Amino acid sequence: MQKTKVKEKTKMLNTAVLMGRLTADPELRHTPSNIPVTSFTLAVNRSYVKSGAERQADFIDIVAWRTTAEFVCRYFKKGQLVAVKGSIQTHSYHCLLYTSPSPRDSCASRMPSSACKKKKKKTKK
Hints:
Elements: E1 16-22, E2 29-30, E3 36-45, E4 57-65, H1 66-75, E5 81-90, E6 104-110
Parallel strand pairs: 4-6
Antiparallel strand pairs: 1-3, 1-5, 2-3, 3-4, 5-6
């Protein structure tokens, strides 16, 4: 894959905002240099439904690093509705037999905490 040089004055935008449900509990891992990382998949419903058909969903892979990864693993669980703000990144990987097309991952830079507020316990008087 050939990368194109871009003039420094050219402004571009790469922001993704997604809302969907986690397909599994996120698991915290660490890189060899001890940086926290997690990856998870969001099921995101499409905004339209063909008449007579069921609503389709896209399954989008997300990667979160450092404190965002720790936050995700601490507060979010399978089936929970979450919002993710980040950017789209592409990469390719090599196999002995072929080079894959570029898979796409969303890299989470921010996950709002509004979805994980703990319920207040009622106190008896």
